[in-house]
Amino acid sequence: MSNNTEKKILRNEIFNPEGSDSAKDRKIFGGNSSNFLNVADVKYQFGIDAYNKMMQNFWIPEKISLGADIVQYLELNAYEKEIFNDLLSSLTWLDSAQMNNLPNLIDFITAPEIKLALSVQNFQEALHAKSYNNIVHSVIRLTDSKDLTYFYRNWSRNKFLEKRNNFFLTTFQEFQDNPNEFTFIKALVTTYVMEGINFTAAFRHFYDFVYSKNMLFGTIDTIKLIHRDEDSHASLFADIINELIKEDSKILQKNLKTSMLEEIIKEGAELEKEYISILHKEHDLSKTQLTINTINAIQAIEYITNVRAKKIGLNIIYPNAPETDPQEHLVKVSGLDAKTGGLKESFFENTVTNYKFTTQDLISFDDEEEEK
Ligand SMILES: [Fe+2]
Ligand SMILES: [Fe+2]
């Protein structure tokens, strides 16, 4: 995928007194910024919009009651427990990797409004990983160090999960070790794939616990809040990629041709399909009460992949995928809008059962005022 014109890019200095603070001089990367946070005037409004959206969604995992889930988890059969644990471990890996990847991307971003948004995103990724930890300790109740090691090292026993994880790890590490235009853009697109595609299949399985078994509401509320965050992260990365294409299409053409972007997206989706298929086989999905089956899960991944590809101006990746979401019943549980893939306005207030503290209690945002 690489070519011979890879242009080195420089890590930001802590402060660059020779740099400019002016919005008009800004570039997403490779600009000459002072590295000062000056967002009084901005070039990339989507960075501020993403910041506002994420701050409006502010939540604290420790405020979600998991009490009832402790008893309900014990009522799951062995297969259901294995699927629950396997997916939770897989999600913890994704968020941990993202938490370690983002600071490296931020170090090369030269637009302060985008840095600001990515810094909040990074905080959220840490919060997500901690939320999964809370479920591991409070609901699954793993305290023994052997059990904990078994849980957290799931990736090392499942070669399909390891293969999927390595797709991200290789690209993120490649950029960290050798930062240039090519590895940077590849890391951006791969981050978009994780945020927009790879989290979703696992989330849908958790929604199925509510749909088919009417239980584990605390865990599912946590997942809903994380899903909403991931959705805003996917939008932020789509905006960054679209802006790069608009601003300097040569950068993308030179470094990653359209077909290569499609290849990255397809590879991420294929690896997720493979992991989910194996998960269903390994833990015998037919012995659970979940409504998801392997064909349906694969169709849903393909549908979501097409939606994400279109968002960054690409052709659909899977021409035979359904045109509407094949897991609409689970999307309803999530509070997401099935048509747009976005979140319903009333999501927070109407669907989270135990969590009442919102930033609306603290502050009102300009865009909210405008909507009234
Ligand atoms: Fe996350
Ligand atoms: Fe994320």
Describe the structure.
With 372 residues, the chain is an all-alpha fold. The protein has one domain (64-356): Orthogonal Bundle (Ribonucleotide Reductase, subunit A), CATH 1.10.620.20. Helix content is 65%, strand content 0%. The protein is built from 15 helices and no strands. Helix 1 packs parallel to helix 4, helix 3 packs parallel to helix 7 (159-177) and helix 8 (181-213) packs across helix 13. The longest helix has 33 residues, at 181-213. The protein is globular. Residues 343-372 have low confidence and may be disordered. The structure holds fe (ii) ion (2 copies). One fe (ii) ion binds next to helix 3, helix 4 and helix 9.
In short:
The protein is mostly helical.
- Reading off the top of the CATH hierarchy, the class is best stated as Mainly Alpha
What does the main sheet amount to? none
What's the architecture in CATH terms?
A: Orthogonal Bundle
Provide the domain count. Answer: 1
Low-confidence stretches: 343-372
Instruction: Give the H and E element order.
Output: HHHHHHHHHHHHHHH
Determine the mean pLDDT: 88
Category from helices, strands and their pairing: mainly alpha
List descriptors.
mainly alpha, disordered C terminus, binds fe (ii) ion, 372 residues, Ribonucleotide Reductase, subunit A
What topology does this entry show?
Layout: H1 45-56, H2 67-75, H3 78-106, H4 112-138, H5 145-152, H6 154-157, H7 159-177, H8 181-213, H9 217-247, H10 249-255, H11 258-282, H12 294-311, H13 328-334, H14 347-351, H15 366-371
